[in-house]
Amino acid sequence: MDTISQVKQLVSEINRLHSEFSNDYFETGRIEKINLSKTIRSVPIPHIYKYRLTLHECINDYLMTAEIDIKYFYRVKTRESIDDKIQRFSGREDQYPVNNWLNDIFGARIVVSADEIKTIMDLLDDWQDELNLKNWYLRDKEGYRGLHVYFKNKSNFYFPWELQIWDVADMQSNIQNHEKFKRNFV
Q1: pLDDT tens figures, 38-59
Q2: 55/76 Cα distance (integer angstroms)
Q3: CA distance 78 to 150
Q4: CA pseudo-torsion sign 169, 170, 175, 179
Q5: What is the mean pLDDT of residues 92-100?
Q6: What is the DSSP letter of 155?
Q7: Which residue blocks in the chain are alpha helix, DSSP H?
Q8: Counting CB atoms within 10 angstroms of each CB, which of 29, 54, 111, 170 has the fewest?
Q9: How many C-beta neighbours within 10 Å does residue 156 have?
Q10: Which domains does the chain have, with CATH numbers?
Q11: Is 90 exceeded by the pLDDT of residue 143?
C-alpha cells in the first residue's frame, strides 16, 4: 500500500474511532451533552476534564481495533495543557466556540514527504466529504509548519480530534516550536 493510501486509511480510522468513542461516551445518557459551539462561559470545565480522563483511560482499547498501516504517534492532552488553553482563550475579548480551539484533546501525528503532503492537500476536499471531516488547514507560522486535519463527525456535542501531518524536513523545527510555545504550563 502506498503512503497516500496509508494516510487515507489513517484518516478514515481516526474518524471511525472518534465516532465510536463519541457515541460510546455521549450517546449512552450517562453524560450530559453540552453544545461545544458555545463559548467557554457555557461549557463547564469539569465536563472537559471528565472527557479527557475517560479518553486517556480507554484510547488504547479503541486504537487496538484500528487498521492502520502507517507509523503514527498520538497523545491525549494533559490537564495542565487544557488549563493553559482555557486560560488563554477565556481571557480573550473576542470569544470563540470551545470546539474551535479545544479541538485536540486527542492528537495524532505522522511524518511524510513534502510531495506527499501536497498530494494529500489536493485530496482533502474530497476526503472531507467522503470521510465526514470537520475541516483542515496548513499552518505555517513562527517556525512551525504542518497540515492539521480535524474530526468531529458533524456534532457540536463531540470534542474534535486532530491529526497533524508533518513534512520530514520540518520535523526538527516543529519539535523545537512545540517545546517553545506549546509547553508554557510546565
Answers
A1: 999 999 999 999 999 999 999 9
A2: 7
A3: 19
A4: positive
A5: 92
A6: -
A7: 3-26, 45-63, 79-90, 98-101, 114-130, 171-181
A8: 29
A9: 15
A10: 3-181 (3.30.460)
A11: no
Please give the Cα distance from 167 to 173 (Å, whole number).
11
Residue recorded with cell 470545565 = 45
> CB within 8 A of 146, min separation 6: which ones?
138, 139, 164, 165, 166, 167, 170, 174
**Interstrand relation of 106-112 and 161-167 (parallel, antiparallel or unpaired):** parallel
Q: How many CA atoms lie within 13 A of 68 on its CB side?
A: 22
- Return phi, psi of residue 17, to 5°: -65, -40
Contact by Cβ (8 Å): 112, 147: no
Residue with the three cell numbers 457515541: 23
Asked whether residue 97 carries a pLDDT value surpassing 80, the answer given is yes
